[in-house]
Structures are given as C-alpha cells and as structure tokens.
Amino acid sequence: MTYDVTALRAHFPALKAGLAHFDGPGGTQTPTPVIDAIVGALAGPLSVRGTVAPGEINAERIVDGFRHAMADLLNADPTGIVFGRSATQLTYDLARTLAARWTAGDEVIVSRLDHDANIRPWIQAAERVGAVVRWAEFDPATGELPPEAVGALLTPRTRLVAVTGASNLIGTRPDLPAIASLVHGAGALLHLDAVHLAAHARVDVRHLGADFAVCSPYKFFGPHHGVLAADPALLATLRPDKLAPSSDAIPERFELGTLPYEALAGTTAAVNFIADLAPTHQGTRRDRLKAAYAAIEAHENALRETAEAGLYALDGVTTHSRAANRTPTLLLTFRNRSAQDAYHHLATLGVHAPAGSFYALEASHHLGLGDTGGLRVGLSPYTNAEDVERLVAGVAEFLES
Q1: Where are the beta strands (DSSP E) in 209-328?
Q2: Alpha carbon separation from 286 to 114, 209, 281 (Å, rounded)
C-alpha cells in the first residue's frame, strides 16, 4: 500500500502550528476523528450502562465497541480487555492482586531495560510478601536484551517475568516469543509492557506469548488512559479488591467506578483511524490493522535511517539506540554539552525533542547517563522528511552555538 503522510497529517489540527514533533513517545497528537468521537459521545444521550434508556444503551454500545476495537488491535479476546486510568495503575493493581498468591521465597524477574512502571510495582509487591526480585540486564553497548539474560534467571520459584515490548528510552525490541517460551517453560507468567511498542508495531499478544499486556491509547492517537489485555480464563482466577455491589463479571471486576465513555469512544476511533491507513486492503479490521502497521513501520524506519545518517555525520553526537530490532526512537547525548540545553535550543527552532530519562531510570543508569538521560528523538506516523531535516539542522546549529 502507498503511505501518504501528507494526507495523514491533514487530520491533525495540532500540526497546523508548524512544530516538528519528536515527542511521540510521550504521547502523540490527536486526529480529528478521535476528537469528533469524544465530542459525539458527550453530546448524545449518555448515562450509566444499561439496556432501557437511550443513554444507557449508548454507554453499553461504547464500552462494547471499545473492547472489540482493542481486541482487534492486540489480537486478544474482547472479554479480556480491561480499562484503566493508566498503564501504571493497571500494573500496580495487577501486581497487588497476583502478589496475594505469592509466598516468601517466590521470585519475580524485572528488566533494566524497562520503564519504571513495569519495574517498581513488581518490586514493591514482592517486598510486601518477601519474594525475591531478580534483574535481567541488557547490554549497554548494543542495547540488546537477549532471551538468555532472562532464561538464566528462571527457577522453579519464578512466578512472573515483567519485560518491555520496546524500550521507551532507546527503542530496543526484545525477542518476546523466545522470552515467553522460556518463561512458560519454567511455569511462570509473562507481563508485557507494550506501551511504547503499540505506537509503532502491531502487538499480537497471542503470538508474543504475553499472559498480560498493557498499553496506552494516547501513544497511538487516542485519549489518555490505559488498557490491559489478558485471557479471560486467567482473569477469572484473580480476585481483585472491589466494591460489594459492583459487578463480579470479567472484565468488569477489574474496573473501578463508572467508565469514562467519551475516552472509550475516542479509543475506538483511534483504532479505526489506524485501520483506515490501509484503505485499499480488504478484510476485517484486524487484517487492515496488520497492513497499516506494516506501512507505518516501513515509513518510520526509512525516516529513522535518514535521521541517523544525518546525526552520525555531526561531530560530538553519541546515539545510544543501537539494537538490531528497534523502534524509531533515538537517545542522543553530546560531547561537553547538555541534552537539556539541546532540548531548549531546538524548541526555539520549533522542533520538539525533549530531554531526560523518561521514567526509564534503570536503563538510563545502566547506560551510564544517571538521572539526566539524554535527548530523546521519537518519530511518529505523521513525521515527514521535512521534520527530520529540521531536526538534523537544529542539532547541527546547537553544536555550533
């Protein structure tokens, strides 16, 4: 299929401001169809879910549409799709619920590559029950997290392994099917942080072997909230804290309070927007999503290679994103110059590329960058060649200033 980035950009009102956005890893801009869906949900009759009044029926339809849309995006079961305020909140809730079944001496494996939201909840849950935390280390020279780095830590006492689908700091995409095979071979569960990966590649939880996977629609054009996907049969074995009169059905038992229907409507619209990037592809929405993500990856990787070539040619720039398989996310540091200064300089040129460790604190320290991190350049589906040219020229100007 032909990827028309100019036509895509026309759907984003925020891009009319003229900024070159490289802040996608922190959240993408929002297209008009998503905005319209949010407004439409709020404008129509809307009330607590039910089957009698129009507002109840609309709410029920929105929730059902959201679950099916996210199931198509993640190749999951709709009845295993759980809404959460954020991926962080969902991970904390799940960690507390699972840890209720752990005992002293059980083991949990976390990765230095991960965002802290897929590290700290598991560490804190383990500490409360006396479980042991083991660390899977990635290679700071290559950015790779090989499956054997996880496999070497597995024992009969391992209860869960938490790993990222893609590093939000340096873009590394570990070999998840291989890791999942090792984890399941040891009788443990795999929790996947797919927040960064879902913005750039099709996340197929069945193929990847994830027992639990979380993502955030605002990373792929949608509203700010989190989503958990899991096998409904597995969710049925878990007993989270809930109010006595609230539903005990799956997945409702994991969702606290009244759902934000407007956000769910916006998420469905975001999934449909991605699927519509494959207008000539025939088949189900799931088929079109697969084709659309293939086109997104090809577009982003081509621009990433252009950006890397331009940045590598500049004296004094170090790129820490080196894994063979990675998202279009570059972490840069500068010889004798501050990444924060680069961030501020680029902002004066209308180029938004923020600096920091972006909650991937363990990864930043493992790279020798401490709390400071670096300048993160995140390409998105709406990034174009002109944006990349402005970025490289802006970094060059910064180095000469």
Answers
A1: 212-215, 226-230, 317-319
A2: 28, 18, 11
State the DSSP code for 86. Answer: -
The single-letter DSSP state of residue 219 is: G
Which has the closest alpha carbon to 218: 153, 271, 155, 255? 271
User: Which of 98, 20, 50, 5 lies closest to 261 in space, CA to CA?
Assistant: 50
pTM of the model: 0.97
Chain segment 224-248, per-residue pLDDT in tens: 999 999 999 999 999 999 999 999 9
Q: How far apart are CA 151 and CA 279, in angstroms?
A: 42
pLDDT tens digits for range 250-259: 999 999 999 9
Give the residue from 158, 138, 156 showing the smallest Cα distance to 148. Answer: 138
Using CA atoms, how far apart are residues 334 and 71, in angstroms rounded to an integer?
42
Q: Which residues of 152-165 are buried (b: 16+ CB within 10 A; e: fewer)?
A: ebbeebbbbbbbbb
Start-to-end Cα distance in the chain: 43
In whole angstroms, give the CA distance from residue 167 to residue 316: 24
Are the C-beta atoms of residues 341 and 398 closer than 8 Å to each other?
Answer: yes
